[in-house]
Amino acid sequence: MLRNPELRTKPLGIQQKNIVVTCNYVARERGISKLSYIKDAEKKCPDIVLVNGEDLTHYREMSYKITNFLLKYTPKVERLGFDENFLDVSDMVRTRLNDPSTKEEVKGHIYGQGQKDDADSCTCGCHARLTVGTQIAADIRSALQEELGISCCAGIAWNKLLSKLVAGTHKPNQQTVLFPEHTFELMLSLEAVRAIPGIGHSTAKRLASLGIQTISQLQEVDQSVLTGEFGNSMAQTMKLLSCGSDQSPVVTTGQAQSISDEDSFRKCQDVEDVKNRIGGLLDNLLKRLEEDGRLPGIIRLTLRKLDKEGQWSKRESRQCRVPSHVFALGNNKTIAWYCVLSNNKTIQMKMK
DNA sequence: GTGGATGAG
DNA sequence: CATTCTCATCCAC
């Protein structure tokens, strides 16, 4: 929509292979959901505009533009995927509170109540700090809109878990603050344990085997029951999360730890074809490596096979170290063959 | 260090 | 359920 503003008012979907991986809010109002099949989406919404999004270059570049923009406010910026960032603004809050011109006004929504007044039961100053937090969020979101043309949601709270959860309560392009009195309310509004970030489908399944499906069940279950299935550390963490407690700090993300390029290799029988496709992935990777400026220490190939019935199997990977002389030669294909030969295996499909 | 599992958007 | 195309972390070996 940034590159083609005419699409703003139209139902828009981003397509990768057979799937609408994401879509704008116009499309969502028409009943399109993320990760739906193209067929279903077109059935519901025949005039949906589809843009191919298999090449993530543009999204990655904008993603880093946004993170770098946020880094002008504080060095404590942690990326989560391509489109979310955590900011620890504690220092900014302290500075603003020392400024006599700072007001008491809350910007945006307050979670769990119409107005803010009953609130001042705290003696620790958290309400004042969170209020300043809403002002900082409003300032940053407004500047982001002005300078990069990006709208977004924000959640203001005292830990990452709660800020993420409360950010999702007013969408799109709005912000919400959580005051401590309403923590329990927010956690219980979630219902399923799966809604807690960090509890994915696998952990949810294991919890279900213990008879735990809702947040309140997780809050009330005896520690020892969890410890039996997950071990002490995980059990402790999950109990805390269920109550809205998250000790994890905002960790500055910095440069990527790895870069990868992949493709689902649809209908690839021919060996020649496979070689070409892997070569293409490698070329893209080398371009990105050059822009990055660093040299890789390791290269890894990842693959998934298709069985007779067209079912995907689990991922398999092979990796090896890349000596720097490989790059001194400046020879593209050398690297992939170095990897393949040094492992003495034939590897097709996916490459990381 | 390697390779699989898991989880995030 | 994954499906797409990434990126990160954890853990057994």
TrEMBL record:
<dbReference type="Pfam" id="PF11799">
    <property type="entry name" value="IMS_C"/>
</dbReference>
<feature type="domain" description="UmuC">
    <location>
        <begin position="1"/>
        <end position="200"/>
    </location>
</feature>
<dbReference type="GO" id="GO:0006281">
    <property type="term" value="P:DNA repair"/>
</dbReference>
<dbReference type="Pfam" id="PF00817">
    <property type="entry name" value="IMS"/>
</dbReference>
<dbReference type="GO" id="GO:0019985">
    <property type="term" value="P:translesion synthesis"/>
</dbReference>
<dbReference type="Pfam" id="PF21999">
    <property type="entry name" value="IMS_HHH_1"/>
</dbReference>
<dbReference type="InterPro" id="IPR036775">
    <property type="entry name" value="DNA_pol_Y-fam_lit_finger_sf"/>
</dbReference>
<dbReference type="InterPro" id="IPR043502">
    <property type="entry name" value="DNA/RNA_pol_sf"/>
</dbReference>
<dbReference type="InterPro" id="IPR043128">
    <property type="entry name" value="Rev_trsase/Diguanyl_cyclase"/>
</dbReference>
<dbReference type="GO" id="GO:0003684">
    <property type="term" value="F:damaged DNA binding"/>
</dbReference>
<dbReference type="InterPro" id="IPR017961">
    <property type="entry name" value="DNA_pol_Y-fam_little_finger"/>
</dbReference>
<keyword id="KW-0237">DNA synthesis</keyword>
<comment type="similarity">
    <text>Belongs to the DNA polymerase type-Y family.</text>
</comment>
<dbReference type="InterPro" id="IPR053848">
    <property type="entry name" value="IMS_HHH_1"/>
</dbReference>
<protein>
    <submittedName>
        <fullName>DNA polymerase iota</fullName>
    </submittedName>
</protein>
<dbReference type="InterPro" id="IPR001126">
    <property type="entry name" value="UmuC"/>
</dbReference>
<dbReference type="GO" id="GO:0003887">
    <property type="term" value="F:DNA-directed DNA polymerase activity"/>
</dbReference>
